[in-house]
Specification:
With about 800 residues, this protein is an alpha+beta fold. The chain has 25 helices and 25 strands.
């Protein structure tokens, strides 16, 4: 039976080469595009599935009660307290990345990007396989465990276990002993590690920064990530409730933090509202890209149905003869479904090759590596083959169901009146294809408009000809370095700050309302040095800026923005006290962060401890002159620190890179959708021209012009585009308004985006059908009347 179906399918495809060719091209492109998207989606959804104990592993998250925000940072002491208090915990460890950690290779210290300070239990918790010492491997302060990649780098061709290696840790040169080698952690993991050292190495930097000696026991230093592994029978929800007892025991009645646990499987895709969460993906992007893949598949499936119904009339007699010879409706339906699935499977290898060839270009689009992860291979195979068979099944369902129900007597009498019904069906499917394309195009223009709006918006500070130089943490000679920069002839001014504008981090605190002391206002802070306000071009509305002429400014002065003055209920703010600081000025509101967020109440004060960034305002066109001078000066004062800089234009572009990439991705897949739909229109027009050959001959004999015949072909297609463009408007507005709602400052949806989508669709559709309609109009009436 299967052999018979296969032979019949091959014969049908051989007789209908155009039908087969167009469907193969359309399905190949659709599957290839979908495979690329699904590769991205599968990889994103597979994060942290590589850990065997993932369902028992949780991260402790910290809900700041007063600020009403959530962070991943917890105290160092948390891990030990949890082990002591809760018997359902099998392991509990704290983790902190070691900044500035370097290992010595020959005579050079090489930076290690992911040096992790933690405990031995971390390796057991995450099931990280280690060669060498098996128990308590990190208990010694001189212990270090290297990844296989780092071992090959620093000890090529040898086993480093038991050997010494020199490192820079906490700014000092130390000698470590390699206690073991661990297998490189899979790429689809939020855990990144090049080496592990004892957790107490992370304490000293916190003690230095806060001039304390109790980082190991302080319950307010939330700078570590705490991981716990519960016993298999433990109830995570009940455990969350038990945190309340620990909080009361630790902080008393006035609890500043509420702790809870988040499962490892949720860390990557469900941490959008958790600050300092580390590596994370976007569930929003997964939904968007999955929807795009679905719509591309829908366009290809509709193409198959459109062409199948167009050529089905030629199969009616074949089906009638088979039915008269005893074939059941079920067997006819099965045959047609098998033909559809056979065509889809025929396309599968072509689609895989196209996807492989297109993967490098897709990586540029998605701005990420589309890795083929070994642990996901089975999943790739199941989903790719399953999707292919599903397309074949759904595409062939309508045709098989419809043709199998035809009346055998009417077929053999050649009196099957189905043309109008099938034509209406094809009309509807083409309109849906064009709706998808028009929605893609108008959506792309709206996203692009928002991106351009973000780049051109007046942010309230200078966003051109500003160089942002990153000095790193704890650089004590920053003041002399900034003074040397200001001496350059092409530098207008330079000022230091803790973070660059627009800020990507948040510094929050609470201040009491001036009128209602029972009401607290959530504020944000910006720590700056002299000349930063002038360098960034912030507008001073009242009072003065920070000045070296006033020695008290460093410790006792603050500047508020307009929103802070209103939120705090202050009248005549200059000269008033806020906490221990005097308000010396008010600046005009500016976008502290990206335009995704509102302008917050802001207090700007001075710092001489946390200056990490230098903003340099330079004369237009002199950047290439300044950079070599800056690098020379930096190498003099900090030869051991990297030379890192960016321009403010590049920083702003990077902040909105997601929007730019999304507009490009949607536009590319809109092109795919239109190309696939054009294949169907091309084949349908050719078929229609053939079926109307005799009609065209009669019309020409009766005096119809070539222009009138061409117009008769084009009129219906233009009508379809008009309907599709109209239907796409409310759909696009609904979807894009939802997308734009994530921005506090946004562009409006302009009418021209819909007009442009209509024009593009019209041009492509007309060009697609024009060739065959023109050829049909040129046919000799004598030949046309002899047709068939």
């Amino acid at each position: 039976m299967i052999k018979n179906y296969l032979i019949t399918a091959l014969r049908f495809l051989k007789r209908n080469k155009l039908f087969a060719g167009i469907n193969i091209m359309g399905l190949s492109l659709a599957l290839a595009a979908s495979f690329i998207i699904l590769l991205f989606v599968i990889n994103e959804l597979s994060y942290n599935t590589c850990f065997k104990n993932r369902k028992q592993i949780y991260r402790v998250v910290n809900h700041y009660v007063e600020f009403k925000n959530t962070m991943a940072g917890t105290p160092f002491v948390m891990a030990g307290a949890l082990k002591d208090e809760f018997p359902q915990i099998k392991y509990a460890v704290n983790v902190r990345s070691m900044r500035g950690f370097r290992l010595k290779l020959k005579d050079e210290f090489i930076p290690v990007r992911f040096a992790i300070a933690t405990d031995s239990e971390f390796l057991d918790m995450f099931g990280i396989s280690v060669s060498g010492q098996k128990e308590n491997i990190l208990d010694d302060m001189t212990s270090i465990v290297l990844s296989q990649e780092q071992a090959n780098k620093f000890f090529p061709g040898e086993d480093p276990t038991g050997k010494e290696i020199t490192a820079i840790a906490d700014g000092e040169e130390k000698v470590f002993v390699v206690k073991g080698i661990f297998n490189d952690i899979p790429k689809n993991s939020t855990i990144r590690a090049d080496c592990f050292i004892n957790s107490k190495w992370s304490l000293n930097s916190i003690n230095q920064n806060f001039k304390s000696n109790d980082a190991e026991t302080n319950w307010h230093f939330n700078f570590w990530t705490t991981w716990v592994m519960l016993n298999k029978d433990a109830d995570a929800l009940a455990f969350n409730q038990q945190f309340r007892d620990l909080e009361k025991k630790t902080y008393g009645e006035n609890i500043p933090y509420n702790f809870s646990i988040q499962n490892l499987t949720d860390v990557y895709l469900n941490s959008e509202n958790i600050a300092n969460s580390g590596m994370q993906g976007s569930i929003k992007n997964i939904r968007i890209f999955s929807a795009i893949a679905f719509l591309i598949i829908v366009v290809a499936a509709f193409n198959y149905i459109i062409l199948s119904t167009a050529v089905s009339t030629g199969r009616a007699k074949e089906i009638g003869i088979r039915r008269s010879n005893g074939a059941s409706r079920k067997s006819i339906r099965q045959q047609l479904l098998n033909e559809s699935m056979f065509l889809a499977l025929l396309v599968l290898p072509i689609a895989l090759v196209l996807a492989y060839l297109g993967k490098p270009y897709a990586e540029d689009l998605f701005q990420t590596k589309l890795l083929i992860i070994n642990s996901n291979i089975i999943l790739y195979i199941i989903i790719f083959i399953g999707l292919t068979l599903l397309i074949g099944l759904t595409s062939g369902f309508y045709t098989s169901f419809y043709l199998s129900r035809l009346n055998i007597i009417n077929i053999l009498k050649n009196s099957v009146h189905t043309g109008k019904r099938k034509s209406s069906m094809r009309f509807a499917l083409i309109v849906i294809q064009l709706v998808i394309f028009c929605s893609f195009v108008s959506g792309t223009f709206i996203i692009r408009s928002q991106y351009k709006y973000a780049l051109k918006k007046d942010l309230g500070f200078q966003n051109e000809n500003i160089l942002l130089f990153d000095m790193g943490r704890n650089f004590q000679e920053y003041s002399a370095f900034i003074s040397s920069i200001q001496a350059y002839p092409n530098v207008i001014s330079a000022g230091g700050s803790m973070d660059a504008l627009p800020m990507q981090d948040f510094i929050s605190f609470m201040l009491p309302h001036f009128q209602d002391k029972s009401k607290d206002i959530k504020m944000e802070g910006l720590a700056v040095d002299y000349d930063f306000i002038e360098t960034m071009g912030l507008t001073l509305l009242q009072g003065r800026s920070f000045s070296r002429e006033f020695g008290s400014d460093l410790k006792n002065a603050a500047i508020l923005n307009e929103t802070a003055v209103k939120s705090l209920g202050i009248t005549d703010p200059v000269g008033k006290k806020i906490e221990e600081k005097q308000i010396i000025g008010v600046v005009k509101d500016f976008n502290l962060h990206s335009i995704r967020t509102d302008i917050p109440p802001l207090m700007i004060d001075m710092t001489d401890q946390y200056v990490q960034q230098v903003a340099i305002s330079y004369k237009a066109g002199t950047l290439n002159t300044i950079l070599p001078q800056l690098e020379t000066e930096w190498n003099k004062v900090a030869p051991d620190r990297p030379f890192n800089y960016t321009t403010i234009e590049e920083l702003i572009k990077n902040i909105y890179a997601e929007e730019k990439n999304l507009s490009v991705i949607i536009s590319v897949f809109a092109l795919f959708a239109l190309l696939i739909a054009s294949f169907g229109l091309f084949g349908l027009t050719l078929y229609t021209a053939k079926t109307r050959t005799k009609e065209i001959g009669v019309r020409k004999v009766l005096g119809s012009s070539e222009q009138a015949i061409v117009y008769s072909f084009l009129r219906k297609n233009i009508f379809m585009v008009m309907i599709a463009a109209t239907l796409s408007v409310p759909i696009t507005i609904l979807v894009m308004n939802r997308w734009l709602s994530s921005f506090s400052f946004k562009t409006s949806i302009a009418w021209w985006v819909f007009l442009l989508a209509f024009v593009i669709a019209s041009v492509v559709v007309l060009l697609t059908v024009l060739f065959h309609s023109y050829r049909a109009s040129r046919i000799n009436p004598v030949d046309a009347l002899q047709y068939e």
